[in-house]
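pasting for ref
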Amino acid sequence: MKKLFLSMVVALMAISANAQVYVGGGVGIGSSKVDADGAESVTSYKFVPEVGYNLNDDWAVGVSFGWKGSNKGGEKGFGVAPYARYTFLHSKIVDVFVDGGVGYEHLYGGKNIDTDIFTVGFKPGLAVKLTDHLNFVTHVGFIGYEHDKINDTKVNSFGLDLDGTNILFGINYKF
């Protein structure tokens, strides 16, 4: 048993010595107010950390997970999305990539909302190298399949979404 444990520790240390692990993600905060009598402003938040591993210069695997909600009885949610990233264009400053993956999100609260969202698809993106270890990362759009279960109603969607409301920004730190 000791030999097995020691072997696993040595293997983990060898992998970690050459590891290309990165961590990052994004945060968001916003406020909205309906222009009506007695309307209150609502502050919403989003926290989406990410962790990944660079297999080589072109391929990486990772997972993003997160929480979102609001301060006044609005909808809340959590989700997880593992992915594989292929970087198909490298330059000195900018890398262009596409993430292929699956995702699950659960939304609840608000006006009796109970929603499950399953996705399978691709998200194109850019990574701008700020330093040797720090990247500014953005994802623009989604192409793929989405299955929503809203209370007892099911919705299936397939398509390409490249509009300005489907842009994500974040920072990744590579060890």
